Amino acid sequence: MSSNISTKASGDKGERLAVHYLENKGYTILEQNYRFEEAEVDIIAYQGHEIIFVEVKRRTSLSFGYPEDAVTEDKKRRIAKAAEAWLYERKMDGAPVRFDVISILSKSETEHKIRHFENAFTFV
Predict the structure, then answer these.
(1) What's the predicted TM-score (pTM) here?
(2) Are strands 50-59 and 39-47 parallel, antiparallel or unpaired?
(3) Which of 44, 45, 85, 112 lies 20 to 30 Å from 35 when distance is taken between CA atoms?
(4) Each residue's pLDDT tens digit, 10-57
(5) Residue among 105, 80, 107, 100 at smallest CA distance from 25
(6) Are 54 and 44 contacting, i.e. CB atoms less than 8 angstroms apart?
């Protein structure tokens, strides 16, 4: 299996875990894997009065640092760009939004440590 396939499979598994986690916390999942040009948002959810754009990062070891460390400034800019497009397309400009990161460290196929960083970053 090539690393691209295994990386995608790992990401897909992480997103499934994150969706389950968010739903259990009372979030409504609006969309997954929204793409705009070169930007993508993993999960778009709704809770209370906010639309939440969620980046999911999953790792199986800490060899390259914590999963959330992979959310770089460039990645944040791309997520914000996709969020802006999503809101514009739905005529929701100005809606209250939040950017979260869900970090998943998988010790095995069944043991996962999930950390949810609410308001992980903002954009202007």
Answers:
(1) 0.90
(2) antiparallel
(3) 112
(4) 668 899 999 999 999 999 999 999 999 999 999 999 999 999 999 999
(5) 100
(6) yes
